Amino acid sequence: MSDCRTIVITGATDGLGRAVALSLAADGHRLILHGRRSEALAALADEVGATGTEKPAIVVADLSSLAEVHTLPDQIGAVTDHVDVLVNNAGVGGGEPDGHDRRLTVDGHELRFAVNYLAPFDLTHRLLPQITDGGRVVNVASLGQAPVRFDDLSSEHGYDGWLAYNRSKLALITWGFTLAERQHRVSVNSLHPGTYMPTKMVLDNAISQIHTLKSGVEATTRLIVDPGLEGVTGRFYDRLRQTPAHVDQAYDRSVRERLWQLSLELTGAPEPACSAPA
After folding, report:
1. CATH architecture of the domain with residue range 6-267
2. Which of 1, 44, 92, 222 is 20 to 30 A (C-alpha) from 265?
3. Which long-range contacts (CB under 8 A, 24 or more apart) does 71-78 make?
4. Could you tell me the residue ranges of all domains in the chain?
5. CA 63, CA 159: separation in Å to the nearest integer?
6. Tens digits of per-residue pLDDT, 173-190?
7. For 47-78, how does the pLDDT look when each residue is reduced to its tens digit (9 = 90+)?
């Protein structure tokens, strides 16, 4: 893969996504930035372009709507003939600014499960044909993890926003392991970029910062561009350190198969073509 990569980043207008975008743009990579507000995306694209680097392309979709997620591969295909890296960064936290109460999407799914898990699952499966051989999928997950409740995917009972968030992140990591096993053309890794970085999710909930945004950018961009990680797949990282997922469910074959099949049904996403190890 060449040094200059074409990189799609979801949730690029705030927090970690924005910081990662600015860092990658400064290094000369070609960016396609996703957000749900065209005005914010245009302002970020102008900011990047003003530095003298290539102005990013922008794609707009509300990830709480599967119909809008389905438009993204065509939007991306309209501005590039290939993608080298997909960064699934967009997410909804456990509290503000999206509220502490239980909310359902237009598709009837619990909001955090929909945005943090179903949307990246769906987008990645649909975009895979456009990702180059040897490309990468990077999932921004969390150390906050909790078992998926198959009998209560919409979290109808005893709702807690942070618990719903933790379940969605465990689902993201678990699916990443499965996707890495089922195809070997593209690497798939997940990471916890940092604890309580000064992002909107943290600041809006008045949580004290622990790690810096700079350290989160370092951990995330490493998985995106580090040549030493070529071919490394099916891993979870706590910042720069490879570590097991914190919930055994992620390694349970029956759980992984059940989550995979259920996610295909809920999203209508295509099943990726299997590929042999290189």
Report:
1. 3-Layer(aba) Sandwich (3.40)
2. 92
3. 72/34, 72/123, 72/126, 72/127, 73/123, 73/126, 73/127, 73/130, 76/8, 76/32, 76/127, 76/130, 77/130
4. 6-267
5. 21
6. 999 999 999 999 999 999
7. 998 887 889 999 999 999 999 999 999 999 99
